[in-house]
Amino acid sequence: MRDNLFILGRELSAFFISGLVLVFAMAMVYIDVNWMNDAMKETSFTEVTQEIMLAINAGLFFIASRQRAALILVGGFFTCMLIRELDFLFDIIKHGCWVWFALAVTAASLAMALRQPKKILPGLVELVQHRSWQMMASGLLAVLVFSRLFGMHQLWEHLMLDGYNRVVKNMAEEGSELLGYSLCLIASVRYLWQTRPQLANAPAAAKASSNMNHAQPQIATR
After folding, report:
1. CA Rg, the chain, in Å?
2. CB under 8 Å to 177, separation ≥6 — which residues?
3. Nearest alpha-carbon partner for 31 in 52, 51, 49, 19
């Protein structure tokens, strides 16, 4: 009974916290539209929040990769997404040069992960089998697929006809991306928390302790 209440309370708490993250994300869009006079630009609150979420995601996976080498690939992936979001900064150097920085991060992540090649595949399989992966995948699909299709200018031009306003299209597209990044962040935090080494080693320690307790009476009866 107590275990069931604990699980229910934990899941409801996670649901509530996730809701707060989404409320915060929507608040950034609201600020850009209402307080910043439709300033949906590279330096908008919405865009900056996306970049912060990506940086947190990448940092968390890089930190966790100290114990699980495969996660450095996930951290590198989110870093590449961050570089893509910051393309306007790299354009100062040369237009489109963000690609080379992303490739450099990819190569570095692969090189570091390949120092323990046998752990890469099991580590990635562990990630995709965890229940948080479904939320993370949903977030990635929202960013990489849905937001791109939802933000097609042909769709919005047809919808608004002569009243076409690019800011409206940008708000819809960037809002969809922010939702996706929020889901990725929630999923990443939950996955890394639930699979942290201390928690993962607890069942093994409990099993070993149980085996020792069963073995002691047998020794005493001899």
Report:
1. 23
2. 50, 142, 143, 147
3. 49
